[in-house]
Write a structure and sequence with these properties.
Elements (H helix, E strand, L loop, with lengths): L1 E12 L5 H6 L1 E11 L2 H6 L8 H12 L6 H15 L5 E9 L9 E9 L1
Antiparallel strand pairs: 1-2, 2-3, 3-4
Helix pairs in contact: 3-4
Amino acid sequence: MGQVALEGMEFFAFHGFSDEEQKIGNRYGVDISIETDLQAAAVSDDLQDTVNYVTLYQLVQQEMAVPARLLEHVGHRIMERVFQAFPFVQLARVSVSKFNPPLGGICHKSKVTLERKR
């Protein structure tokens, strides 16, 4: 068993509960980690035997481009795409953060983390 992760991805997107947030947009961060058997890739040195980082990044980027009211929904969509793209993945963990959320005070980021096993 092993883990493949992309950490610190940043996007400008139009998520948020209020209509204003969806119009103005904000900076968001995404961290994703995937657990799967990496033995075949370790032996073969073949990209087909593992999670392709480029494909993983692109599917996160595509989901971040689709507006949503809740970070939970964005994270759920990302996990669904991971399981579709990589049928051998056994567990996915996704954190979606909103930088400087409009809370009326100082807060660096709000964050939700979702985890799902196949």
